[in-house]
């Protein structure tokens, strides 16, 4: 009987997982692969701050990225998973898909639940729709922009908006320090580069509430803004928790070192949606640097499980954190394998070119 492998999500992790499984199982026969995604396009999520700043993204139809693989693409939103019946419910035809093996790779979205008013009064850059809406909003308004959260996404977004809207005030507000995972040298470079673009950086500044007119701060002060961009946290879709899969306290799928669900052995997970750990038990960072190797690994893990083998455990290793600061500037922070920063950094145009090469190289690899 044909074995049905269903991959949920065609982002970096899911697309690599589906294509890798197709390649590995080509000669095995008897396996059908279906990839389910909410959109018919692959979204280069690492460029969404560029889209928000008015730079259109390349069109990458999934059917061209899947050409010749034999993978069936279903463009639909997964609305629920019935773990007992091994069925995924969809919002459009074919409405349901029954699986023998499931790969869960649904990514993440902005978490606007942590501060009152954030859900009502903020924009985001976590999905294509978020970024397109933000672009439309910034084009229609002239007042100050505020970016809440100065992790890597917040830094990139503030720099990109400041470059695209010269003369317009851009606040970057964070309750801790800028780029908490960076070296002091890296942070120094960022402060200078953001200052050059006129970004008003507010470190150690907690947002108490988001109102229609801007940010209300914990010290009672206010930062008026036409548009507030929320990058102060990401959350994962609730489908895994609702299905009864073992999850951690943030709803990330709990897996063993082969990325197999701790509660449901027929389920694997990859990318932002999974709780995996690198050297020293450090939780994996939500990033392509994590999602791409996880996708490739899951393909190996699934293929091994279908051919009666046990794969070696996943070994996550980091090398750098690549941050764009507009189109011609950047910071590459080199890291230890556990993602902690070393002193070495690459800055300026050289870093921007390096990041562009990595980003383009990723899409080239996805096309193969
Ligand atoms: C602005 C920005 C800049 C970033 N820059 C970097 C960077 O420079 N370097 C880096 O390493 N990381 C970066 N990241 C993080 C990186 O983009 C994510 O970690 C990565 O996309 C995660 O890959 P994924 O496959 O898990 O999820 P995603 O890429 O989010 O893919 C998930 C897929 O699932 C689909 N989906 C979701 N829900 C459903 C559903 N219910 N039904 C069907 N389909 C669904 C989505 O449409 C999407 O196609 C950035 C993120 C943002 C937002």
The percent range for strand residues is: 15-25%
CATH class of the largest domain, please? Alpha Beta
Structural class: alpha/beta
Bound molecules: flavin-adenine dinucleotide
Shape: globular
Low-confidence stretches: none
Instruction: Give the fraction of residues assigned to helices.
Output: 25-40%
Biggest sheet descriptor: 5 strands, parallel
Q: Assign the CATH superfamily of the largest domain.
A: FAD/NAD(P)-binding domain
| Biggest sheet: strand arrangement | 3-2-1-7-18
The CATH topology of the largest domain is given as FAD/NAD(P)-binding domain
Average per-residue pLDDT, rounded, comes to 96
> Mind telling me which CATH architecture of the largest domain this is?
3-Layer(bba) Sandwich
Kindly give the count of domains. 2
The radius of gyration is: 21 Å
Strands, count: 22
Please work out how many helical segments DSSP would assign.
10
**What is the end-to-end distance?**
30 Å
């Amino acid at each position: 009987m044909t074995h049905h492998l269903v991959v949920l999500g065609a982002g970096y992790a899911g697309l690599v997982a589906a294509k890798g499984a197709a390649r590995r199982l080509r000669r095995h026969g008897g396996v059908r692969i279906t990839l389910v995604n909410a959109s018919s396009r692959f979204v280069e999520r690492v460029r969404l701050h560029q889209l928000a700043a008015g730079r259109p993204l390349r069109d990458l139809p999934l059917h061209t990225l899947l050409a010749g693989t034999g993978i069936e693409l279903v463009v639909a939103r997964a609305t629920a998973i019935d773990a007992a019946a091994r069925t995924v419910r969809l919002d459009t035809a074919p409405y349901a898909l029954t699986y023998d093996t499931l790969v869960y790779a649904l990514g993440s979205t902005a978490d606007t639940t942590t501060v009152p008013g954030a859900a009502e009064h903020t924009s985001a850059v976590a999905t294509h729709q978020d970024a397109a809406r933000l672009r439309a909003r910034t084009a229609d308004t002239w007042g100050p922009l505020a970016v809440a959260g100065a992790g890597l996404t917040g830094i990139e977004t503030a720099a990109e908006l400041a470059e695209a809207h010269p003369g317009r005030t851009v606040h970057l507000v964070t309750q801790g320090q800028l780029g908490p995972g960076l070296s002091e040298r890296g942070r120094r470079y960022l402060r200078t580069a953001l200052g050059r673009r006129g970004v008003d950086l507010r470190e150690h500044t907690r947002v108490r509430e988001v109102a229609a007119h801007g940010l209300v701060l914990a010290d009672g002060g206010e930062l008026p803004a036409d548009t507030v961009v929320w990058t102060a946290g990401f959350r994962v879709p609730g489908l895994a928790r609702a299905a009864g899969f073992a999850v951690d306290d943030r709803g990330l799928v709990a897996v063993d070192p082969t990325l197999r669900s701790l509660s449901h052995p027929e389920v694997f997970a990859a990318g932002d949606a999974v709780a995996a750990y690198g050297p020293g038990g450090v939780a994996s960072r939500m990033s392509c640097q994590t999602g791409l190797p996880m996708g490739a690994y899951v393909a190996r893990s699934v293929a091994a499980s279908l051919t009666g083998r046990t794969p070696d455990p996943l070994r996550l290793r980091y090398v750098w954190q690549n941050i764009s600061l507009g189109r011609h500037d950047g910071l590459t922070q080199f890291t230890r394998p556990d993602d902690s920063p070393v002193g070495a950094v690459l800055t300026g145009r050289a870093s921007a070119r390096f990041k562009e090469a990595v980003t383009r190289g990723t899409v080239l690899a996805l096309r193969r």
